[in-house]
């Protein structure tokens, strides 16, 4: 019962303090002021930026497939190798196709011999006709035979070219420079045009990143670019939160709008010399201005939210806590720009906010740089 009465007495006392306009500072006279960490609000350059979800896409991506049927020969690469254009990466046993080429060559040679004989006979018939020792019928027959022999040569030559083309398909080459992926078939397997993809070659230098942008954001970006053509910078935030070292350049905006999202696909191209970016990788794309404005900035840890909006606590020159309603702007690298409600130089509480109330006297200590950016 005594404990309940003691608790009730404390609640009544607290209510009387509030009703009489008294501050909790009067209640702390029995103990030392609570310690808090503070950091002066300062003018910092903070870039205005927007973030989008994007996906990396290779400039060139080729699926290698068999174009003829046969057994795979020795593989000419290791999974993940960098390959050059026209480099042989797979082979199909060529013996059958080489035999077909040899056969078509023989047929072509035979047709050439027949054509040579037909032309000789035509020439002789023409001479006999000129001297009136031959007939027109014989000449016409020899002419027909010469034309047929010529057609047979053309047909045999076409068949030879087709056989040579089929033979060339037994060497599967990379059509681009790039990195080749995992092989889907091992040597000795029977493959054909129906076997599917044998391996994929991806060109990753440079690499593109595609991301959707709403119409409003696109219009804002175009206005900024009209005012400063070189004023837009594209960056990438990687999966671990770090910023990719290379800057990108927007080089394409899709010519259609998605009716469901009211957005357009924007493409940016980035250097990828270190191979950090991979085709299909999900990334966060950051669009910001080249010129970075300065603003009053405080650590993210200092900002709190309630139903009214954002606020923070400051310590005045008498070490008394004051609550400040603020409007926040751009947030970057653990710092938040304050657009109104705070002046540069004011001491902002960055640690210990849970132990203070407006009007309370505190014992402030300037926070070290590391502590000022950690969320409490």
UniProtKB/TrEMBL annotation:
Pfam families: Beta-barrel_RND (PF25944), BSH_RND (PF25917), YknX_C (PF25989). The keyword Signal applies. Keywords: Signal. It comes from the Bacteria. Residues 296-363 form the YknX-like C-terminal permuted SH3-like domain. Residues 61-193 form the Multidrug resistance protein MdtA-like barrel-sandwich hybrid domain. Residues 206-288 form the Multidrug resistance protein MdtA-like beta-barrel domain. PANTHER family: ACRA/E-RELATED COMPONENT OF DRUG EFFLUX TRANSPORTER, MULTIDRUG EFFLUX PUMP SUBUNIT ACRA-RELATED. Belongs to the membrane fusion protein (MFP) (TC 8.A.1) family. This is Efflux RND transporter periplasmic adaptor subunit. It comes from Reyranella humidisoli.
């Amino acid at each position: 019962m005594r404990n309940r009465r003691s608790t009730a007495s404390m609640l009544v006392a607290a209510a009387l303090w509030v009703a009489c306009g008294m501050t909790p500072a009067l209640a702390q006279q029995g103990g030392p002021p609570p310690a808090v960490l503070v950091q002066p609000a300062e003018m910092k350059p903070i870039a205005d930026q927007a973030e989008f979800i994007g996906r990396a896409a290779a400039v060139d991506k080729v699926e290698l497939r068999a174009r003829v049927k046969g057994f795979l020969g020795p593989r000419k690469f290791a999974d993940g190798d960098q390959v050059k254009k026209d480099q042989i990466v797979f082979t199909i046993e060529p013996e059958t196709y080489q035999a077909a080429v040899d056969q078509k060559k023989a047929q072509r040679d035979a047709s050439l011999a027949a054509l040579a004989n037909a032309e000789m006979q035509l020439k002789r018939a023409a001479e006999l006709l000129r001297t009136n020792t031959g007939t027109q019928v014989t000449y016409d027959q020899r002419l027909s035979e010469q034309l047929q022999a010529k057609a047979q040569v053309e047909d045999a030559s076409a068949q030879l070219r087709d056989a040579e083309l089929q033979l060339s398909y037994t060497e599967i080459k990379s059509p681009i420079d790039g990195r080749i992926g995992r092989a889907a078939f091992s040597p000795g397997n029977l493959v054909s045009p129906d076997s599917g993809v044998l391996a994929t070659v991806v060109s990753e230098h440079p690499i593109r990143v595609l991301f959707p942008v709403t119409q409003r954001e696109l219009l804002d970006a175009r206005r900024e670019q009209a005012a400063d053509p070189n004023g837009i910078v594209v960056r990438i935030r990687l999966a671990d939160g770090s910023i990719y070292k290379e800057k990108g350049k927007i080089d394409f905006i899709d010519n259609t709008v998605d009716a469901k999202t009211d957005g357009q696909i924007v493409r940016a191209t980035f250097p990828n010399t270190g191979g950090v970016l991979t085709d299909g990788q999900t990334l966060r794309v950051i669009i910001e201005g080249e010129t970075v404005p300065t603003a009053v900035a405080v650590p993210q840890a200092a900002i709190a939210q309630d139903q009214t909006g954002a606020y923070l606590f400051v310590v005045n020159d008498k070490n008394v806590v004051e609550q400040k309603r603020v409007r926040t702007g751009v947030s970057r690298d653990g710092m938040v720009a304050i657009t109104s409600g705070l002046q540069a130089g004011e001491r902002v509480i960055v640690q210990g906010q849970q132990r203070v109330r407006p009007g309370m006297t505190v014992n402030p200590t300037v926070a070290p740089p590391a502590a000022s950016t950690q969320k409490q």
